[in-house]
Amino acid sequence: MSSLSDHLNAAPVVPLVNDSDPERALATAQALEAGGLGVIEVVLRSEGALEGMKAMVARGERMIVGAGTVLTLDQAKQVRDAGAEFIVSPGLVDEIAEYCVAEGIPFFPGTMTAGEVQRAYALGLREVKFFPASLAGGVPMLKALGSVFREMRFMPTGGVSAANLPDFLALDHVLACGGSWLTPKDAVAAGDLGAVTKLAEEAVAIAKAARG
User: How far from chain centre, in Å, is Cα 16?
Assistant: First the structure.
């Protein structure tokens, strides 16, 4: 089975799936995978999200599924027990970071300042989320952070789109970009999975052009 890093090297884009219907969430993830995106972040913003993630884990042999919007240590343990292969949080919480480092689970806490990135570094992390990317200074801020924290790699999320994806991926210290533009609510609600697959294919093409 390919590792998370292998998947992100091949296609450095992580789509967010936000759906209270587990079956629809699974179908959306499969549509994304069909378009070439095999790393999925299921955000825990609804009652059915965890069940949707479990369904993906159970049926996505080639898919790497992680949990996003993880706010507490208890949630981190819950999603790990449910099969999450990586964990994403909107902010940096020491006890979640310490748990993930001890358990060997990739953890991407949200950071937007030098102080937060330095704290993550001190906790043993070398990869973090940059969130919300557009409001936190975008590409110029990432360039500044990368020049100081040379061992850190970033996953900008929040305000990333097909239009600015090339700019973020042009930075060597950007591991991947996360985004919800790949799973538009209207298309998902209407069951237009073809539109989701097309957006995934477009993102893969943009990433290949940006990374060479």
Answer: 7
Phi and psi, residue 20, nearest 5°: -85, -10
Give every strand in the sheet of 39-43, ordered side by side.
Answer: 153-156, 127-130, 107-111, 87-89, 64-68, 39-43, 13-17, 177-179
CA distances from 21 to 12, 53, 93 (A): 27, 11, 29
Compute the distance between CA of residue 115 and CA of residue 131 in angstroms, rounded to an integer. Answer: 14
Q: What is the mean pLDDT of each run of 10 residues along the chain (212 residues)?
A: 84 96 96 96 94 90 92 98 97 98 97 98 98 98 98 98 98 97 96 98 98 84
Please give the Cα distance from 147 to 151 (Å, whole number): 10
Q: What span, in angstroms and rounded, lies between the C-alpha atoms of 54 and 51? A: 5
Say whether pTM exceeds 0.85: yes
Catalytic residues: 41, 129
Rounded CA-CA distance 96/145 in Å is 23
Non-local (6+) Cβ contacts of 159 within 8 A are 132, 133, 134, 135, 138
